[in-house]
């Protein structure tokens, strides 16, 4: 797959989005960082978008809404304040989304509701290993279970949008290319029976593998939708804010070095919005950088496993991860999975 080309050409393509019907986007993890960058770019590039976003920080959300009122007064921008560490909240987010869309002129029933872009971008570095209310590792919830649950609950609206000019896409912002499944996925995938509980770094790399496998599986099951697992590279965001003070200090000291390899906000925003709207990524599973370059273990293999053996192994893993999601999220209190 060809990379996107220069920032100027990507921006120029994005300016054409202005002629499309108003897109509908839901950004889970939109109060800061990459999610907030996507919101700002959509506001800049599209006509009267309806953008719903989720996070815990109401003050940050209000600042985004105030900015939106200036940059795109015709946009509808609504904040849903929820903590995704609680899996039942994903049902509340989906219900709020439906309720808001039913208030839009011309939308008379759930059949009319369309969701063009679903972004999952939660996951700060949270060093806590204290289990969530659902007895799961926090990092696995924000980086895997809540993300797949959002797709499960919003699937009909994505399907309705798949025939529109913009289509329907899911962007999971994480770390394609850095998959490292714990224990080769031979033990419990939700890691809750491992003692001591694995730390957030292990969980993050494990979740990265789970996301890549799920994007592949979902694209097979729902070929009308695009499923993108994105590795944003180094972007200066609020990602370190939940680390202990000494780790934040080390991160601050490393900033000048990181600066050299980082990508600026404007570039990240334009490139991600391009991936969320171009024809090439309209359907299928993609494991990519924001410039469209692949970081795809399906093609490179994993730990020397390649060819047929690698295809077989991934198929086995995908089946296990699918079942684990249904069992783990399906048994969480207050969660009503859609049948899929
Ligand atoms: N930045 C990078 O260089 C980089 C590199 C590779 C991968 N990534 C990945 O990209 C994703 C986004 O990172 P970022 O850099 O944009 O981080 P960020 O600035 O910390 O943004 C994370 C967003 O997720 C929300 N969030 C976190 N935990 C939540 C929870 N429990 N419930 C609801 N919302 C929650 C935060 O909102 P509230 O605080 O309002 O809850 C915020 O809006 C992460 O998965 C990260 O691992 C980032």
TrEMBL record:
The chain crosses the membrane at residues 24-43. The keyword Cell wall biogenesis/degradation does not apply. Pfam families: KR. The keyword Transmembrane applies. Signal peptide: none annotated. Keywords: Membrane, Oxidoreductase, Transmembrane, Transmembrane helix. Residues 25-107 form the Ketoreductase (KR) domain. GO terms for molecular function: oxidoreductase activity. PANTHER family: ALCOHOL DEHYDROGENASE-LIKE C-TERMINAL DOMAIN-CONTAINING PROTEIN, YALI0E05731P. This is NAD(P)-binding protein. It comes from Ascobolus immersus RN42.
């Amino acid at each position: 797959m060809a990379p996107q080309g220069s920032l100027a050409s990507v921006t120029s393509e994005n300016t054409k989005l202005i002629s499309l019907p108003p897109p509908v986007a839901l950004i889970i993890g939109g109060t800061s960082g990459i999610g907030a960058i996507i919101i700002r770019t959509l506001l800049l590039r599209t006509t009267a978008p309806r953008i719903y976003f989720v996070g815990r920080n109401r003050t940050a959300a209000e600042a985004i809404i105030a900015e939106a009122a200036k940059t795109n007064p015709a946009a509808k921008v609504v904040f849903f304040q929820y903590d995704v560490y609680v899996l039942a909240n994903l049902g509340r987010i989906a219900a709020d989304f439906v309720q808001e869309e039913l208030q839009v002129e011309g939308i008379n029933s759930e059949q009319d509701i369309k969701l063009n872009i679903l972004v999952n971008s939660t996951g700060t570095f949270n060093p806590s290993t204290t289990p969530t209310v659902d007895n799961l590792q926090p990092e696995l919830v924000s980086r895997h279970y809540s993300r797949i649950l959002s797709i499960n609950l919003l699937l009909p609206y994505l399907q309705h949008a798949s025939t529109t000019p913009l289509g329907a896409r899911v962007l999971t912002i994480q770390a394609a290319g850095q998959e490292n499944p714990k224990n080769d996925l031979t033990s419990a995938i939700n890691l809750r029976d491992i003692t001591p509980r694995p730390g957030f770094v292990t969980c993050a790399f494990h979740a990265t593998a789970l996301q890549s496998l799920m994007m592949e599986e979902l694209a097979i099951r729902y070929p009308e939708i695009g499923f993108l697992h994105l590795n944003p590279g180094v972007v200066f965001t609020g990602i370190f804010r939940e680390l202990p003070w000494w780790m934040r200090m080390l991160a601050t000291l490393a900033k000048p070095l990181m600066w050299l390899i980082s990508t600026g906000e404007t570039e990240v925003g334009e490139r991600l919005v391009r991936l969320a709207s171009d024809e090439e990524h309209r359907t299928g599973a993609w494991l990519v950088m924001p410039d469209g370059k692949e970081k795809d273990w399906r093609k490179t293999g994993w730990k020397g496993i390649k060819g047929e053996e690698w295809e077989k192994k991934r198929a086995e893993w995908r089946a296990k991860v699918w079942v684990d999601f249904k069992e783990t999220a399906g048994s969480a209190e207050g969660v009503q999975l859609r049948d899929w």
